[in-house]
HTH-type transcriptional regulator BetI
Amino acid sequence: MPKVGMKAIRQAQLINATLTVIDRVGLAEASIAVIAKEAGVSTGIVSHYFGDKNGLLDACMRQILTDLYLAVERHRFQAEDTPQAQIRAIIDGNFDLTQVAAPVLKTWLVFWTNSLHQKNLQRLQRVNDRRLHSNITAQFARVLPREQARQAGSSLAALVDGLWLRMTLAPQPMAHGLEDARELCYQNLALWLNTPVR
């Protein structure tokens, strides 16, 4: 009889192993056998909990999206309740340390690529896109006319995604690049609000 809580432990173990393997060899070479070996379990355990590699990728992305949501909420909770501070907190959450580790960055890229062809991943991507855009736009709408707030939200969300892509494709980990990415977003925010960058 399995121990209580073993399912959650095994799933977390397999998700971490998947992130590690994707980082090391890419998705194409990240077979169930390689992932199982990394996690120190049998391939049957992987199939039992996730069905196949697509199910495992889906679970990885759900975990990363949950971590992203929690990071953004944490930053927003700590920020003042002004549009500028809340948008900066959304930016900071998107570039939180939970989201910029190399395995997570590479898995994001795999996710974006595969979401073009897999409906379940497309749905997760749409949810993520809408959440980022609507959260930013709602804050801009507190101080800008509706249409301008929508444009500002689209602009900043596109900048966040573009900087993410650049970080993912960078040959070296982005230590100072992370601060540069945030600063570019802060500058975009300041332009829309016509305020100095702080």
Remarks:
- Residues 187 and 197 are 6 Å apart (CA to CA).
